[in-house]
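Lab notebook, design round three. We kept the backbone fixed and only want residue identities now. Task for the bench partner: fill in a sequence for the structure below.
Input structure tokens:
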């Protein structure tokens, strides 16, 4: 494999392009088995990044490097050309995350690529994201399992922090908002035991603060999640840094769901929105979120509405509550009704398509693939010597039929006179109305005949009692058998009912034919 040598001599752009072309052309599993492929791929991801010392001082880069940008654009390009886009993107998830469990969620380049993958997946499957969340969930569970095994080692007693590792650190939220959206989705459903104990604590101890309830839930579940690790606060922090991204409306929806969705405790449903949002310990997290919701430019008003839902004093679950005090109150009622459908009406679809089209065009121009992949129309020889204007096709001609009356000739000036236009079609409208009445009557007659046929079916075989002779013997050589009779029920075919059923079907067929004919006539007119 020559890619390590080519990369080491400085051909940084040639290597990723050849790898991307090959990765798209052949089976993905083949490349996973190639010796040193992961080493080459790791080098490609970070070949043009600054040193780790600089990153440690300045923090992760929010702007993709040229190589990462090129790979992101290739994802958009090939997702339009592969047969199964879901399989293609899941193969990339396997390459980026599953095979690199120790580094993938702390590497800015990986998160930027993951964001492009989630962006494309959302464009193709807004609800399930092509199964990518399930892959990340399974990977996260394996990471948590490894963390638990390591936390019981001999050196764990010297460390005071036993909190499970976060799927994404707070400092990485702004690296790739789409990737953060995916990872927070997965993280929110990864600790069901802890959250169930937390909700039970809320119900049993109403005066406990959120921080105290978290400590009790952590001690009972052995999962030491702090207050800032709660899903509602994580989403609030994400909303604070994602206002410029197209994923912002989706983040607002998830924040509303985590705040107001009803939780079941001992068979009853509770809303803990005010418990979470009015907590003094969460003020430092919610203050930047409130500022963003108040200042962000949002022509559709979703940010303003969510701001009103979060920072209020209303108990929305009390009997007779008037939801009209809120903007877009129907969305809040959907959340309370456990409706998790994506609010696509508030997503900027035009901007999403522009971003994807821009990436696709970037890779096409970089690799000079655009003109080659387009179907070039070559005119036949009979048009070679004609001018371009003569090649234009004329307007289509409506087909004529001998049984269809010709279309009336209407002058342009008459189109602006309502009475004259209605005069042309009044007779046709009357005929359509008359035929429609016939059709409705015929449908009612068909339904009546069907009901009568059903009644006749029950009478076709009548129950008739009969006496059947029976001889009782004590054995084969019985000398004194006992002759007796017993009454049984049998059925008798009713010829009269059968004749009525035949007449009913013939009448039904006639009525159905007449109704169908009237329907065609109505369509004709």
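Proposed sequence:
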């Amino acid at each position: 494999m020559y890619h390590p040598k080519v990369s080491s001599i400085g051909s940084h752009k040639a290597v990723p392009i050849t790898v991307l072309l090959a990765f798209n052309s052949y089976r993905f599993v083949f490349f996973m088995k190639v010796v040193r492929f992961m080493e080459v791929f790791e080098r490609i991801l970070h070949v043009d990044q600054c040193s780790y010392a600089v990153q440690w001082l300045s923090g992760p880069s929010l702007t993709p490097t040229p190589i990462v940008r090129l790979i992101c654009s290739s994802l958009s390009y090939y997702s339009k050309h592969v047969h199964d886009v879901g399989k293609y993107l899941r193969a990339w998830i396997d390459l980026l995350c599953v095979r690199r469990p120790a580094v993938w969620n702390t590497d800015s380049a990986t998160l930027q690529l993951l964001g492009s993958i989630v962006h494309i997946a959302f464009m193709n499957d807004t609800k399930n994201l092509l199964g990518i969340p399930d892959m990340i969930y399974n990977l996260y569970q394996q990471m948590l399992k490894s963390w638990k095994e390591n936390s019981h080692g001999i050196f764990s007693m010297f460390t005071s922090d036993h909190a499970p590792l976060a799927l994404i650190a707070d400092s990485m939220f702004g690296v790739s908002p789409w990737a953060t959206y995916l990872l927070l989705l997965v993280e929110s459903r990864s600790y069901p035991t802890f959250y169930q104990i937390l909700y039970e604590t809320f119900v049993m101890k109403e005066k406990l603060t959120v921080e105290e309830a978290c400590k009790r839930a952590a001690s009972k579940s052995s999962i030491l999640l702090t207050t800032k690790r709660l899903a509602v606060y994580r989403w609030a922090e994400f909303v604070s840094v994602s206002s410029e991204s197209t994923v912002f409306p989706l983040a607002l929806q998830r924040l509303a769901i985590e705040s107001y969705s009803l939780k079941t405790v001992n068979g009853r449903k509770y809303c803990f929105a005010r418990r979470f949002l009015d907590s003094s310990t969460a003020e430092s997290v919610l203050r930047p979120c409130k500022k963003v919701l108040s200042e962000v430019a949002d022509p559709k008003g979703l940010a303003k509405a969510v701001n009103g839902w979060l920072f209020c004093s209303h108990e929305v679950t009390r009997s007779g509550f008037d939801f009209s005090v809120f903007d877009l109150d129907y969305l809040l009622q959907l959340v309370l009704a456990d409706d998790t459908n994506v609010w696509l009406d508030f997503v900027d679809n035009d901007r999403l398509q522009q971003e994807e089209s821009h990436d696709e065009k970037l890779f096409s121009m970089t690799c000079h693939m655009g003109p080659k992949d387009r179907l070039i129309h070559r005119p036949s020889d009979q048009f070679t010597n004609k001018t371009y204007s003569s090649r234009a096709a004329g307007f289509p001609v409506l087909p004529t039929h001998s049984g269809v009356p010709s279309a009336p000739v209407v002058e342009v000036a008459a189109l602006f006179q309502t009475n004259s236009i209605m005069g042309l079609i009044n007779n046709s409208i009357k005929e359509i109305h008359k035929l429609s009445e016939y059709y409705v009557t015929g449908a009612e007659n068909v339904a009546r005949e069907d009901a009568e046929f059903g009644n006749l079916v029950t009478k076709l075989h009548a129950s008739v009692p009969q006496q059947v002779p029976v001889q009782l013997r004590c054995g084969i050589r019985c000398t004194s058998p006992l002759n007796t009779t017993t009454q049984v029920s049998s059925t008798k075919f009713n010829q009269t009912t059968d004749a009525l059923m035949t007449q009913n079907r013939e009448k039904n067929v006639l009525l159905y034919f007449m109704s169908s004919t009237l329907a065609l006539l109505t369509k004709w007119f």
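Keep this in mind before ordering anything: The chain is about 55% helix and 5% strand.
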